[in-house]
Each structure stands twice: as structure tokens, then as C-alpha cells.
Amino acid sequence: MKRKDRSDRWQVARQKLYIENPLISIIIPGKNEGKHIFKLVKSLAEQTYQHFELIVVDDGSDDQTPLIGKNLEKRGLIDMFIRNEIRGGKASAANTALAFAKGKYIVHLDADCSFDRDAIENVVVPFYLDEKTGAVGGNVKVRNYGESLCARLQAIEYLKTVSVGRIITSYLGIYKIVSGAFGAFKPDILKAIGGWDIGPGLDGDITVKIRKSGYKIHFEPTAVCLTNAPAKFKVLTKQRLRWDKSIIRFRVRKHRDVYFPHANFKWLNFIALFENVFYNVVLDITWIIYTIDVVLNYWSLMGFIIPMNFVLYISVSYIQMLSVYLFSERRKEELKLWNVLPLMSIYTGLYLRTVRTVAYVKEFFFKQSYDDPWNPVKSSSKAKQYGL
Amino acid sequence: MLQVLKHNQAKQYIESQGLKFLVLSSVAEYEAALLKEVDAVILGDMEQRDTAQLLKEVRRSRDKQLYLKPIFSVMKNDPSNSEGFDGFTDLISNKGIAEKARKILAKIDEVNSKVVPHDFERQTLFKQMAFMYTRDQLLGPITDRYSKIGYAFPFIESLLTDGASLTLINILKLGLDQGLMTTKLVDKIHTCNECQGNYLNFREVCPKCSSVDIVAKDLVHHFKCAHVDVIDKFQNGDELTCPKCDSKLRHIGIDYDKPSTMYSCNDCHHQFQDSDMQAFCIDCGKEEDTANLLESEINTYALSERGEHLVINGWENEQDNQHIEHLSLELFRIMLGLEIQRSKASSRSVFVKFDIHQSVVSPLGKEGREQFQREILGIVKSYVAATDLLSTKNAQEYFILLNDNTLEEAQEKCQIIEHNLTKLIADNLTTKEDLVLGSLQQVTSDLKVEHLT
Fold first, then answer.
1. Which of B67, B216, B224, B372 fits a 20 to 30 Å CA distance from A235?
2. Which domain holds residue A109?
3. Which of A211, A190, A209, A213 minimizes the C-alpha distance to A201?
């Protein structure tokens, strides 16, 4: 009954979208992304919703990107190609696009993504379901899961945490990260909060800023986007170190005000960030204490504890995967992932936890995210100076 | 030493070293018959316009003794010698011009002008080559503000109507293509593809609406908060203040930078980084992309061995065979009319018409259309018999009168031509519309020429 009600409301919202037929500004900021742009344009040409403008911002690329971008603009496949000769970082590139976007909604994409035919339509419809919605996150899935074990494990992780995890947090009103790979925003809200701030982790940061402005954040599982995940553990480690540092930088440091009572205090914001920090940081620390405790005081029971833990983790993995299976629209393809499920406990329990712990230590004690080459020094040094 | 012979009836003759010179002081004094009697001519101090007119009169003659006549001038105010004089004299003591005239006259005798080409272009080319041969000199361009192409070519220019500079270039190109001349590149010029003028105004325009009302503004990136916008949004009196975080931007490179520039169009409000470059022709008013301008080479020309051979032995007959024979539309209509009349008795002729799609022809400029027309005629000619008649109305319409053909034979020929023309045109274009449309009709007495062509 509830599902039918939602389906009816969705249809009404979709009709409203098509009646109004608003211009949507699709913005793609990035560096050295020229090789992906043509494929992306082709992918967008297949969309069911076609009233959009495409703005590509080239953030000081040193490859063929300017040539490709200008050519596509000349051929009318891109509406606006903005070449910044001097690199300014992802946030400045996104803000450049924001300054010239004319659409009623802004859809932020990564250039190496491709989209289901109804993805753009589906990521915008939620704005018509609830006018208090300030941003909508798309459902990012791994395209290259067949490439390596590393990519396959991430595919499962994305399904569990990114897809199902976000459906639940969105339902509970505590969804806190609109993926930079695929997300939709209202431009007036973005402009009111000053657009994106210096990253890394700017997608999580802007979501919190929108939440703090009093708007709802919605996750839309039917707005599906496929992306390439790192196929090697070395690359994945670098990526996760960068992501995990941003939890400390933004959720613990920059937005610490959400944890304290003040005029704009909101419980949902508190819970959203607290849940994130609690599960990732606090439980991470307690796990380390627990492990040390077991090694020091219960060494004789290790032969029982470790197998038991593994059995429990693996069982939970299968239960989680079953729930993913129920929600997913790509069930048949995702069945191929089931055979590596037993390795998920090692992947998440040991590998990701270790990377996370290292990232937290580096950021908490040494503020290393400001030294990340992902941003130019001129911006990072200012962000560090002003504690942003 | 120059000796004044006569000075009556406003005509002055001078003799020097056995040569007789006629001194002309005005256009009114010119008579072709008088020129034939003398060895060379000296033009007195007269208006440049008059000089040009006199030279035209002389150079346009068909008689080599006239158009190649040595001509000297008393004016020294034209250091460029754009008129192509053979030298200058003060009329008192300059035996140099007599020696020069003698050499030229000797060479004129070597020129064989008995076998001359039939068409104007080749006639002009021949005259130019003969001039170069008799003067033993190169043909080099002289910069000229008033020329349509910015350069003047002495001698040949006086053979053409004013402003026919590109025709001039094409005639010289013909000499080059046929191996009669060699060249050295001096410059490349760009001219309007409609009127061939080079008085062009180059301007930056909006790529969307082609308006010239565009303004460029710097983008500013504030490092601290990553805000980016056009500089206007940061401008606060004389200061720059970030509209996002309200910080003052003091130092470029430390607080902010300018990563790029954006243009905005005041007419259509389009924003862009790369404006289009457009050429506006002052002469005909056409606005065109610079890529569509006609590019021509300006060369210095020298006679090749073959060219010299041609000047001495006359225009070889085989040169003409390369020219595609087709009838003027007027003549074709007469011939078609006669065939229609003849068909009352008996006829085995078929009238064929080919239409080239407008989208193929319209983007070409005037020069391009003429070139296209020549090429299409050349191709059609290769598929029809020597007895068939061929004509064209414009770059789009071509007519053939196939003599002594049944309708089936004509249909077969028509299909082959249509197929090959379509293939040729389609290879150079992306569009796949019906590019060439052939139609045919048996010539019968009820046909009307005016309806067919």
C-alpha cells in the first residue's frame, strides 16, 4: 500500500517535471578528463530527459583536454567549455561552472561516469516530491567489477554502504553525503552557501552545509550511475586515505558546531554526523582497544575468537547481500559478486579499517589533508591557515 | 644624344641612335597608326589616370608591334614603376633608353604571334609571357593600396578590367599549371569569397549570434574559499572583495589569481571563452568565417623554357585540347530549337538535364561555384560523345543533347553520369541527400526550348 502510494506520488512528481520542463545544468569539473568527455556526452544523449545544458570546466589540464573540449563545444555537443589555464582545484572548478549555470537545477557529475537512461530524470524528480529537498544523491555503482578482485570487493562495498546504506539513512533523514560523482542541487541554495569549499572531501562538506541551511538531503536509488573503481589496492589505499581524512577534517573539525547546542541546532544533523563519526572513528578506536585486550589478556582464546568472528562477519555479509539483492535493479549481474563475499570481512574488517585508522591519525595529529596534491598548494595553504 | 625631329600639331618625335620615338603628352594624341610608325614611345608628364588609359590602349592591341612596343616615361614620381615602363628619361641626354628599346625590338621580332589561342585567358597569358620574354624580366608583384588584392602586376593589369585582380591571379596560375612559368612565393592573401575584395574588416564575434557587441572579463579565483566568478562580482570600488567570504583580495598569486577570461555577448547574453573570428567585406558587405575566405598565392613569375618556346613558336595546338568544350547557353538553346524542329521529320535525340542539390552549391563562393561548374562539365564531358552538345546555366543546372541515342541508351548514360557525380560529390560531403538528379526526355516536336532550359 505504502509502495503504491510512493509510486503514485513519484508519477505525479515526474509529470510536474515534464510539464515544467526546466533547464538542468549538468556541470563536469575536472582535470585531464578529456578522454572521458566524448563517451559521457554520448551517454547523456541517451537520457530520457533532454532539456539540459552541459558545462565542462577544465581545471588546468596538461593533456589534450582543452583541444577535445573546444572541439566538442564547436560541434555543439557541449554547451560551454571553460578552460582555466591555471589549476585551482576541484572546488574552484565546480564554482566556476556554478557561476555560469543557468538551469533550475544543477547536476554535478564526474567525467568518467556513465548513466542509466533515466538517471537524470530520476535524480531531479525528488525535488518535486518535497520542496524542502535541497540536494539529491545519485546511486553510484561500480562498472568495472570484473576487472580485479579489488574492484569486485568495492562493488560489494558500494552496494552495501552506498546503495542500501544510503536508502536507509535517507529514509531516516540522516543521509549526509551526496556523491561528487552524481548529485543534484538547487542552484539558489548552492549560491547562498557559497558553493563548494576546498577539498578533499568537498562532496561530504557541501552536503553538511546544505543540511545546516535547513534543507533535506534525499538519496535516489533509481538514479543509477556507473563509475570505475580503482582496480589496484595501491590506488584504492590512496583514494581511501584521502576520503577518510576528510571525516576528521570536516565532520570532527570544521562542522563541530552541529554537536553543540545553539540557535540552529538540529537533532537530525547531530545524529547524521554523530552516527558517521561514531561508527567510523569511535568504534574504530574501541576495536583497536578490543584487539589489544584480546591479544594481551585472552591469547588462549584466540583460536576460538577469530574463527567465530569470521563466521559471524561472513554470515552478516550474506544477510546484507540478500537485502541488497531485494533492492537492486541489477540482480542478475550482481549475483556474480556473491562468490567473493567471504573475503569481505577481511576487506572491510582489516584492510579498510587499517587504512582508516592511518588516515585518522595522519589527519587528527598532522592535518595531512592540507598537503594532499589533489589540491594546489596555493589553495590548501590558505585553507590550512584559516582552518577551513 | 636625342634629336628633336618634329614638333608640329602637338606631336613630338625624337630620334636617337637610329630609333624613332614618339612623345605623347595627352591621351588625345594617341593614334594606333602613329605608333606603328615609330620604334618606341615616351609618355610625357601627365596625370596617372591618363597614363594608365594610354597604356591600356596600347597594351590591349592584338598586334605584337603595338602591345609589346617599348614605352618610356619622363615621370619619376612613380618609384614603384607599377605601370611597367621600360625606363625613364629626361628627354635630353639618355641614350640608355635607345639601347634598351633596340634590345626589346630585336626580341619582339622573335615572338611568334601568328598562332594565338582563341580564348581571352590564354591570349592574355601569351601577351604577358611575350612581354616578359622581350624585356627579359620577371613578373613581380608591387604592393598597391588601391588594388583589390593589395598587389599590382605591371603590364598584365592593363589588359584586364579594373578590379579583376583575381582573374589576373588565375591567368597566371594557368601559366604555372601548364608549365609555362615558374614561381617564387612572395605572399598569401585572403579575399572575400563573393566579390574577391580584400578590403576586409576582421573582428571577434559571438559564436552564437555573430554580434560584435561582446565584452571580455577576467575570472577571479579566491584561494581561501575557492570562490570563482567574473571580476565585476569582486569589484568593490577600487578594491576586490570576495562576495562569498567577504575577505579583501590584496595580492595576486597570494590571495587570488585570474585563471581565465570569459566573453559575454550583450545581444544574446551567450557566455563563451573562444570568440569566432569573422571577416566583413567592406566592398560587398558579406560576413564570413575566416576559414571560408579565398586564399591566393602572390608570386614572382619567371618564364620557363617551355614558356619561352611557346612565345617563339606560337601557342601549341594541343594546349587547347585540354580545354573542355561546351556551348554557351544561348547557342545550346538555338541548337536545341533546331533539333526540336528537325524532330518533326525524325529524331533520335534525347535532352538530359542534371540538377545538383542547392546545399552543395550554395556554401561555395562565386569563385568556388565557377570552379565547381568547370569540374562538373569536365566530368560530364568524359561520359558523352564528341557529337553530343553540352551546356550549363549555372553551377546547379547542366544540359546535354545526346544525338543519335535511343531513350534506353540515353537512360543508361544518364544513370552512369548521375551515379558518378553523386559519388564524387558525396565523398566530399557528409550529407547523403539526393545530391544529383538527372531527368531526360526524347526530343519531339511538342517540346519548348524555354521550358527545358
1. B224
2. 2-229
3. A209
